Structure formats: C-alpha cells, structure tokens
C-alpha cells in the first residue's frame, strides 16, 4: 500500500515542480514527464538531497548555478538530454533524482521525509494519515522521538539509529523554517 501511495506522492510532486519551476533545458521537462508517466518509473526513483555513487540524475532550475542536466551511471556521466532521456526510458534499475531548485522547497522536504519513513516501515504501517498539511514537523518529530524511546526500551539499536537519522533530518528542516 505504501508503495502505491508513495508513487502517487512522487507523481504529484513532479507535477508540482513542473508547474512551479522553470528548468534550464527542455529535456529536463521531457524527463520529468517521462518519470511521472508510469508506475514503473515512479517505483524506480527516489529523490535525494546529495549525490550518491548509484545511478543518479541531477536536474537544475533556470536560476541554479549547477549544470542543467547530468546523468551518472557506473561512474560514467553524460550531459546530453536526449541520451539521458533514452537511457532512463530503457534502463529500469533504480534511479536517484537530485533537484537543484531555486530555493528550499517544503514539498520536496516532505517527500524526502516520507521516503525515509516508507523505507523504514515498508508495508507494515499505513503512513497516509501522516501526510497531511495539519501535521507539522514538530508533530512528526514527536512521533519519531516516541519511536526512539521505544527502541531504547527494547534495546533495538537498528531502530534507534534509523529513527535518529530521521529525527536529525526533521531537526534540520525545522532550523530552516
């Protein structure tokens, strides 16, 4: 259930950035439209905050100082939008998407947080009630603190470490507000 719901959230987010931001080159829009076009693509993407050694696509808005479009796979990078589009279309492996937006975007931050929670909980917990505008970062922080307390009570180091990472992200977001 979380997988389908998270795909829907990714699709809505892509629609939002396509509407709100101007991108440096047209191929960025083509690629974003491709990614939102099918559950197959949505299932295979994750939005990230920093580059990784995995397959990654970085897309920049017109006011960013970054390259317009960069795609790296197996330590080989290309900037040609048409080549990138076709490789993404044909390669069904996981893709990390790094966005260089004009500013700190709350919807991107919320999606990053949702991805972290879904990655941790998987299909075990229905997280849809957490995703509404009435739940502030403070509220989310309280929920994660409760999970940290439970993990300490049960001597569950893995849960403690994962929840601490999520809480750190929430704290960073709260500091930016």
Account of the 3D structure:
This protein has two domains: 4-105, 3-Layer(aba) Sandwich (hypothetical protein tt1805); 133-175. Helices cover 55% and strands 13% of the residues. The protein has seven helices and five strands. The chain has helices spanning 2-20, 26-36, 39-43, 81-90, 106-121, 137-153, 157-176; strands at 45-48, 56-60, 69-73, 76-78, 95-100. It has a five-stranded mixed sheet with strand order 1-5-2-3-4. Helix 1 (2-20) runs antiparallel to helix 5 (106-121). The protein starts with a helix and ends with a helix. The mean pLDDT is 87.
Q: Layout of helices and strands, plus pairs?
A:
Elements: H1 2-20, H2 26-36, H3 39-43, E1 45-48, E2 56-60, E3 69-73, E4 76-78, H4 81-90, E5 95-100, H5 106-121, H6 137-153, H7 157-176
Parallel strand pairs: 1-5, 2-5
Antiparallel strand pairs: 2-3, 3-4
Helix pairs in contact: 1-2, 1-5, 2-4, 5-7, 6-7
Strand order of the largest sheet: 1-5-2-3-4
Overall pLDDT level:
87
Number of helices: 7
Whole-Å distance between the termini? 31 Å
Helical percentage: 55-70%
* CATH C-level of the largest domain: Alpha Beta
The proportion of strand residues reads 5-15%
Gyration radius from CA atoms, angstroms: 17 Å
The class by helix and strand makeup works out as: alpha/beta
Q: Unreliable segments (pLDDT under 50, ≥5 consecutive)?
A: none
